[in-house]
Automatic annotation (TrEMBL):
Domain FPG-type: from-to ranges: 242-281
Record's keyword terms, sorted: DNA damage, DNA repair, DNA-binding, Glycosidase, Hydrolase, Lyase, Metal-binding, Multifunctional enzyme, Zinc, Zinc-finger
Protein name: Formamidopyrimidine-DNA glycosylase
Any single Pfam family the record assigns to this protein: H2TH
Family: Belongs to the FPG family.
Organism, as annotated: Cellulomonas persica
GO molecular function list: 8-oxo-7,8-dihydroguanine DNA N-glycosylase activity; damaged DNA binding; DNA-(apurinic or apyrimidinic site) endonuclease activity; lyase activity; zinc ion binding
PANTHER family xrefs: FORMAMIDOPYRIMIDINE-DNA GLYCOSYLASE (PTHR22993:SF9)
SMART domains named in the record: Fapy_DNA_glyco, H2TH
Amino acid sequence: MPELPEVEALAAFLRERAVGRTVAAVGVGDIAALKTFRPAPDALVGGVVADATRHGKWLDLMVATTTGEPVHLVWHLSRAGWVRWSDRLATTPVRPGRSPLALRVRLDDGSGFDLTEQGTRKRLAVHVVTDPLDVPQIASLGVEPLSPAFTRDRFAELVRSRNQQIKGLLRGQDTIAGIGNAYSDEILHAARTSPFALTGKLTDEQVDVIYEAIRDVLAQAVAEASGKPAAELKDAKRRGMRVHGRTGQPCPGWDGTPCGDTVHEVSFADSSLQYCPTCQTGGKPLADRRLSKLLR
C-alpha cells in the first residue's frame, strides 16, 4: 500500500504534469470504486487542474471548473491501487468490466492517467467532492507527521492519551496521518522498540526516540521518492526497507551496523509485520498470533 512518502511523490508528479491543463474527459471503469455521485465525474470536464495535493494517504486533484467552484477528485489507492501516467493516453471510451482500470482522466494535450487496481479484493476509493473534508476519512485524519503541528509534545499527548500497542498508534489514521504497515515497521526498528510495546509503559526517553525516528524515517523516504516517476516508486520503496518485507534476511542494524540477527515476522489474518529481535525485543522472538499468545 502506498504510504505518505509515495503519495507525496505521486502528488508532486501529478502537480508537475497536470497543473494548468484542461480536463478533456473522465471515464469510469469500475462503478464500485466511485463512492460519490454528486457532483458527477463529468463535472471535472472542461475545468483546469489547479493543484495536486495529499491528505494522509489520500491524493487530491483540484480542478477549477467552468462554474467557478473548484471540484476535487480525491482517491485512496488502498493495497493494490496505483496511478499510471501516460503522455499519450488512449482515447477509446472506458467501458466498465473486469479490467483493472477503475478511472481514466485525459487532459487536453492527450496526456493523463489511469487509476488501476489489481486483484479480486477491490478497495480503491474515488470521490468527487467540492470540499475534501466532505470525505469522512479525510475529515477524521490526525496530525501530519512532517508538518510543524507534529511537535514532540503533540506526539507525547497522543501516546499518553491511550494505552495500546505502539504499532497500532502509529498506523491509526485518526492519530497520525499517512503511516501504514511498512513505515511503522521501519520507524520502530529505527527506534529499537517492540511493535507490541504498550504506549502506557513507554518512558519519556522512549517517546523521544520514537518521535525522532518518525521524523527521520519519513523525511528520508520522502527525499528518496522525490522526483521519481510514478512507475518507479514501488520498487524504490521496497529497496529502501530495512526490515519490512525482509523476513529471514540479515538485519542491517538500526544504525546501519549489522547486528547478526535475522528479520522475524508476525502474521495476522491479512497482513504481517517484520522486526528484529536483537534490535527491538531484547533478543526474544515474538510469538505468531495465529499460533499462540503474544510475548511482550
